[in-house]
UniProtKB/TrEMBL annotation:
InterPro entries: SBP (IPR006059), TAT_signal (IPR006311), TAT_signal_bac_arc (IPR019546). This is Extracellular solute-binding protein. It comes from the Bacteria.
Length: 560
């Protein structure tokens, strides 16, 4: 992961914000165990459809774990493995023999959160030379990527490789996948993937979410299991002030009152709405926002948990414990408020754990970010739902020839090399002496590396992710430990791992609830207003959407 992306500022809390912050971490669900079934859409119809379990099994690549390097911190309770040490260059293993390409030249359209590197820089040249082919990158501003993506897909000027994140998979874009991009099943399904060992080592759950329109079309970037939202706190300041980490929503409110000192420009927290939902055991976002109760599907907004989360978060705002800029909806500087000590708690995706640590190591060596353990509404065990096993894919243009597709897959196999390989060192750190230097046995990017070596190639395909930051081994131990503890309480949501496009007539039903939550938590609307909105949602299509999902569940079974 690039340092610049890891440390990119957050925007106002939204589903898109947290997914983006999470996805650039390029991590994975451990295991690779096949799930029950997947779901895909009828191509371009917007009506929805399913791929049965048997059909799905025939589509998915055969899983074969990588054996390149044993982790220092093994997977426990589904956590991502951790690496606290970096092999010296002489000990790195080559996972690919020779140059995988044979002189082809391809264009790639992708998002980038941060300043784009200069074109034709030494890093791009080094990677293209190692690939034996040329990938011409067209990075776009990740914050406005959906708008540009829609325009490109509607035109005839589509790059050879196109990256699409989960949160941009609106109706038309989702439907365009089947019409515009190649079916990779003939190249990767079953044992065919063994031609590409690094792709075969990608967990099956991530491949399952790569089925679109009944075909295996995407090359996935696997996700960590609980990476979407982490409640962070300033461990250094907590220790200095003697604050105790809260273990219940009530303790959190009491601590927030103790911390907040507006005259000193210190507030307890930023907007904690996303954490509030997990404190109160709410299911996740579309399509994971359903739970089953007494044989009936219940939407997140219909649960008492949701209303309790709203009310608790409203108390945070009403007490004056939330930073004024967060109250005003200025989310872009949330990380800055946290690192400067204006807030001591905030929530964000897992990429910020390393990003903030890296950023502050020089100017603020005492800085220590830590993840707070989740707790339940009464301080008991939490109920935590797993995040999607993949959230970003690359797709190959349908107009490419078979030879070209096979060459790109060979390039993707190189790029998806795991930690401990020569390929991984090049992709993640560039060339030694040019982009990074070995310091105390650890590759450390220099200024050129920080500028040029970003998460550009990893969007093509990523390995089963690890937490591999040997420059900050304690941070690796902390994050892996947090995942191991929280993994004990994790469960698969309904429809886990399914690639679902809701029918177009229902696609925007849930959208108003994001603004509603902001209004209720900030006191502009009441809980009664939320209850009326829920009633309107049911009558406006929510009940029909429930029936539609119930049919999917009957056909496919749950992912739980």
């Amino acid at each position: 992961m690039s340092n610049s992306q890891a440390s990119a500022s957050t925007s106002a809390p939204s589903r898109r914000t947290f997914l983006a912050a999470t996805a650039v971490a390029a991590a994975a669900v451990a295991g690779g165990t096949p799930l029950l079934s997947g779901c895909s859409t009828e191509e371009g119809s917007g009506k929805g459809g399913t791929t049965s379990g048997k059909e799905l099994k025939n589509l998915l690549p055969t899983y074969a774990a990588s054996t390149v390097a044993d982790p220092d911190i093994p997977s426990v309770n589904g956590s991502s493995p951790g690496y606290t040490k970096a092999p010296p260059a002489a000990a790195l293993v080559a996972s690919v023999k020779g140059k995988p390409g044979h002189g082809g030249s391809y264009t790639m359209f992708e998002p980038l959160w941060g300043t784009p590197p200069p074109k034709n820089n030494a890093y791009y040249k080094a990677v293209n030379d190692a690939l034996g082919a040329t990938i011409s990158l067209r990075p776009q501003d990740g914050n406005t990527y959906g708008e540009k993506l829609g325009a490109v897909l509607a035109s005839g000027d589509i790059a050879d490789i196109v990256v699409i994140p989960l949160w941009e998979m609106g109706g038309r874009i989702h439907g365009a996948v089947g019409a515009k991009f190649a079916d990779l099943g003939p190249y990767l399904s079953g044992d065919k993937v063994k031609k590409y060992p690094n792709l075969a080592a990608i967990p099956t759950a991530a491949w399952q979410m790569s089925v679109f329109g009944g075909k295996l079309r995407g090359l996935p970037m696997p996700s960590r299991p609980l990476a979407g939202v982490i409640p962070y706190y300033r461990e250094d300041i907590f220790a200095e002030e003697g604050y105790q980490v809260p273990k219940s929503p009530a303790e959190f409110l009491a601590l927030a009152k103790e911390i907040t000192r507006p005259r000193s420009k210190v507030w307890a927290c930023d907007d904690m709405w996303w954490s509030a939902q997990r404190f109160f055991g709410c299911p996740g976002e579309k399509p994971y926002y359903w739970v089953e109760k007494d044989g009936k599907l219940v939407h997140k907004v219909e649960t008492e948990n949701y209303l309790e989360a709203l009310e608790w978060c409203r108390k945070l705002f009403a007490g004056g414990y939330v930073h004024p800029d967060a109250v005003a909806g200025k989310g872009n500087d949330a990380l800055t408020r946290f690192t400067s000590g204006q807030t001591l708690l905030y929530n964000d995706g897992d990429a910020k754990w390393y990003g903030a640590t890296f950023e502050q190591a020089g100017p603020n060596p005492a800085f220590k970010i830590q993840g707070m353990d989740w707790f339940g509404p009464d301080g008991g065990d939490p109920v935590i739902y797993l995040d999607a096993p993949a959230q970003i894919w690359s797709f190959l243009n349908k107009s490419l020839s078979r030879d070209e597709i096979e060459e790109i897959l060979a390039l993707a196999n190189f790029i998806a090399a795991p930690f401990g390989t020569k390929e991984q060192r090049l992709i993640d750190y560039g060339v030694e002496g040019v982009h990074h230097d070995m310091k105390k046995g650890v590759p450390v990017k220099n200024a050129t590396g920080v500028r040029d070596v970003q998460d550009t190639y990893r969007f093509i395909a990523s390995p089963q992710a690890s937490v591999a930051y040997p420059d900050f081994p304690k941070m690796v131990e902390d994050y892996c430990g947090w995942m191991q503890r929280m993994g004990k309480f994790a469960r698969k949501p309904l429809f886990y791992g399914m690639q679902i496009q809701e029918p177009n007539r229902y696609a925007s039903l849930y959208t108003p609830f994001e603004d509603l939550a902001k209004d209720v938590t900030r006191g502009r609307k009441s809980i009664k207003d939320a209850q009326r909105a829920i009633s309107d949602w049911r009558g406006g299509g929510g009940d029909r959407l429930r029936d539609w999902y119930a049919k999917l569940l009957d056909t496919n079974g749950s992912g739980a």
